[in-house]
Write a structure and sequence with these properties.
disordered N terminus, globular, tt1808, chain A, about 220 residues, 6-stranded mixed β-sheet
């Protein structure tokens, strides 16, 4: 592994450890990723020489996992396919940028990447949707990272609210609804996450599924 004169900064925000390395070449970043492999708890973001490493905690992971379950319940009710790839490493060597979302989904482009063992940007499309559970302030602008990789839609859960951003002219704009699931009541999702703390995760998912069924039934009756 190449030795660099990177400076090391460590901070702890909301008890979630974050380490930032500066002056890291693309070759060093790739060597590090090859050395540690995929079996690791921490996630990375890399932007032209700056490598950020963070260790998610349960309060970060739980909302993300619930949102995953909600999306899976939603597509099951709609009868459509998705490919859920979790913290898939999205990277572009030509841009010297890389990022691992909390979770991501191929929806409209699911059939394009179905069954592929490796996904390589830009030859393959980016995920249609990425989700970030934002408990830690980042030294990197992840909006810029995801926009440069061409991710069409980003959901960010923070402060008990779910925010939706759509990519327009290479920049994200906040939206009141999802472009992928326009009928989804985005403002109601945090309520189901909060309910899970008292009634349990699977009960919250069942309530969410019931709500989606009601919406779909109302649409079909119109």
């Amino acid at each position: 592994m190449v030795t660099t004169t990177s400076t090391l900064e460590q901070q702890q925000v909301y008890s979630e450890p974050v380490v930032t390395l500066r002056g890291v070449s693309w070759q060093t970043y790739k060597a590090l990723m090859a050395d540690v492999g995929d079996d690791r708890a921490w996630r990375i973001a890399y932007d032209r020489g700056v490598l950020e490493i963070r260790m998610p905690l349960p309060k970060h992971e739980e909302p993300k996992r619930l949102i995953e379950s909600f999306i899976e319940a939603l597509v099951d009710e709609l009868g459509i396919e998705i490919r859920s790839l979790g913290a898939l490493t999205l990277e572009r060597e030509d841009l010297t940028r890389a990022v691992e979302p909390d979770t991501c989904f191929y929806i409209e482009n699911e059939s394009t990447v179905r069954g592929k063992d490796e996904i390589n940007l830009p030859d393959d499309p980016p995920p249609d949707l990425v989700v970030e559970s934002d408990y830690t302030s980042s030294s990197l602008n992840k909006f810029t990272l995801y926009a440069s990789l061409g991710v069409p839609e980003l959901w960010r859960y923070r402060k008990n609210a779910l925010e939706v951003y759509q990519l327009r002219e290479e920049k994200y704009e906040k939206s009141e609804q999802s472009g992928i699931f326009p009928f989804l009541p985005i403002a109601e999702v945090p309520g189901f996450i909060e309910q899970s703390k008292t009634i349990g995760q699977r009960s919250a998912v069942r309530l969410f599924r019931q709500r989606i069924r009601e919406i779909v039934a109302n649409q079909n009756s119109d």
